[in-house]
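User: Reviewer 2 asked us to show a designed sequence for the structure in our supplementary figure. I'm pasting the structure tokens here. Could you produce the per-position amino acids so we can include them in the response letter?
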């Protein structure tokens, strides 16, 4: 295999900077640079794009994104120990890597980015899910990003792309598929990471749609879907009782049987119901 850049191998970077993986930060590192370049390629054509990377760690994916031609990478990393290793990458790619030491849940990266922007990350899954929901639920659309290429536990990835009728279909599927095309583009076994996590992982690629697939108010849709799936075993007329007056009539007007359960309802029907609920 050929080297993707002239920087030291990641095992050496980790040894030089004493970056022993910390469980509290969800650290499972990718050390194979051919694999990180392959993940970077899943982000689409990144040449001419700024790429926001969350949780670069020792910089495996960062190096993949830079070697694949990202115009600029903005990398936000919480672990201060990783910053000197990332600065070495910045020196090897002058003017193309900006590193911020901080918590991605607290930092607004927009001032540091120039459109078009793509997002790529291998994050602890709880932070990844929280950020995904935030990125999918701004009031206005299109968002600041063109695409999201994110590593998740396989089970979470399946929830993002799930279809009605499946056990994994729920809020994450509806929010993802309403405003984006979502697909699983890569599957990775635990052994791809150091240390290996307990479960398999998958990379999900979401491409933002120019406008939502069906009209609906974002806040109403979020509220309805959360209520419907919070009590997914209940019939919708019961699960949605508190969401609006005359809920049975509104369900019928949206073409939904009040005795159906959330799991059976398509994205299109949830959007129709949100519009009915927003009627006075
Ligand atoms: N991207 C690297 C790779 O693929 O080898 C590291 C992946 S590791 C699963 C997750 C990284 O996210 C760690 O470096 C961790 O310190 C960082 N991290 C965890 N929580 C974070 C947060 N809230 N904000 C920014 N970085 C975070």
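Assistant: Here is a per-position design you can include in the supplement:
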């Amino acid at each position: 295999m050929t080297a993707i850049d002239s920087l030291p191998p990641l095992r050496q970077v980790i040894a030089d900077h004493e970056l022993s993986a910390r469980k509290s930060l969800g650290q499972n590192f990718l050390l194979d640079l051919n694999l990180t370049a392959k993940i970077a390629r899943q982000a689409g054509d990144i040449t001419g794009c700024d790429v926001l990377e969350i949780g670069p760690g020792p910089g495996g994916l960062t190096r993949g994104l830079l070697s694949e031609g990202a115009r600029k990478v903005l990398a936000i990393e919480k672990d201060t120990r990783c910053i000197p290793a990332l600065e070495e990458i910045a020196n090897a790619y002058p003017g193309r890597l900006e590193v911020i030491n901080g918590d991605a849940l607290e930092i607004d990266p927009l001032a540091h980015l120039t459109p078009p922007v793509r997002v790529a990350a291998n994050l602890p899954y709880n932070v990844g899910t929280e950020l995904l929901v935030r990125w999918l639920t701004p009031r206005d659309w299109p968002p600041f990003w063109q695409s999201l290429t994110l590593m998740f536990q396989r089970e979470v990835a399946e929830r993002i792309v799930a279809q009605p009728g499946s056990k994994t279909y729920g809020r994450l599927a509806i929010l993802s598929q309403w405003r984006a095309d979502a697909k699983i583009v890569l599957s990775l076994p635990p052994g791809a990471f150091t240390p290996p996590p307990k479960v398999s992982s998958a990379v999900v690629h979401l491409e933002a749609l120019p406008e939502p697939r069906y009209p609906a108010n974002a806040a109403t849709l979020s509220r309805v879907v959360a209520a419907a799936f919070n009590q997914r075993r209940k019939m919708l007329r019961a699960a949605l009782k508190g969401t609006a007056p005359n809920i049975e009539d509104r369900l019928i007007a949206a073409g939904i049987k009040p005795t159906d359960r959330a799991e059976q309802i398509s994205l299109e029907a949830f959007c129709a119901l949100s519009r009915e609920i927003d009627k006075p």
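For the response letter, you might also mention the following. DSSP finds eleven helices and nine strands in the chain. The beta strands are 29-30, 50-54, 72-77, 97-101, 117-122, 147-153, 180-188, 193-194, 201-208.
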